Amino acid sequence: MTRTPLADVACSIARATDLFGDAWTALIMRDVLLGVGRFDDLARDLGISRKVLSARLSRLVEEGVLVRERYQERPPREHYRATAKGEELYPVLLALMNWGDRWYAGEAGPPARIHHHGCGRDTAMVPACAHCGEPLTLADTTQLPGPGGRTGPGTAVLGPLLEARAEATPERG
């Protein structure tokens, strides 16, 4: 795998955005998750250079986010499909979509809707507590250090801040 400076930062956001932090990668994943998986279709849909697309797809395959599968033998043709790891990026894209719809939708409104098959209604991504189901907001959550947390590059100020919060936060089971 390609090693970058962010790969060693003790922060899951840094590590994730190292792979997923540019617009092209997010848009490639959007397209693949929504059913556009052929190289030429991706290039045409996104208006991206073939060189940049090839590099992003190679990295996504290398990281195990996408797989390349042959769908035709003569001539040989392949498409890209999301792995389980790649499918787990869907809620991330929905959260970005929500935020973009709220702050950047044009006068006509959001460009796409999310329709939930289970209840038959249009919906939006809502981050919720895995235990009680309440919505998660900045005001009612605190980040504390995890078992892999450490102070270092990318967390030189944040690491000690999280440690201080942990010392001041009573633990609950």
Structure explained in plain terms:
The chain is α+β, with helices and mostly antiparallel strands and 173 residues long. Helices cover 41% and strands 11% of the residues. It is built from 7 helices and 4 strands, in the order H-H-H-H-E-E-H-H-E-E-H. The chain has a two-stranded antiparallel sheet with strand order 1-2. Strands 3-4 form a two-stranded antiparallel sheet. A hairpin with a 4-residue loop joins strand 1 (66-72) and strand 2 (77-82). The model has no long low-confidence stretch (mean pLDDT 91).
Major sheet summary line: 2 strands, antiparallel
Please bin the fraction of helical residues.
40-55%
The side-by-side strand order for the widest beta sheet comes to 1-2
Sequence of secondary-structure elements: HHHHEEHHEEH
Provide the low-confidence segments as ranges. Answer: none
Q: Quick check: average pLDDT?
A: 91
- Count the beta strands: 4
**Structural shape:** globular
How far is the first residue's CA from the last residue's CA?
38 Å
Would you kindly provide a brief summary of this structure?
The protein is of the alpha+beta class and 173 residues long. It has seven helices and four strands. The strands form two sheets. A two-stranded antiparallel ribbon has the order 1-2. The protein has a two-stranded antiparallel sheet with strand order 3-4.
How do the helices and strands line up, and which of them pair or pack?
Blueprint: H1 12-20, H2 23-33, H3 39-46, H4 50-62, E1 66-72, E2 77-82, H5 84-87, H6 90-104, E3 114-116, E4 121-123, H7 158-168
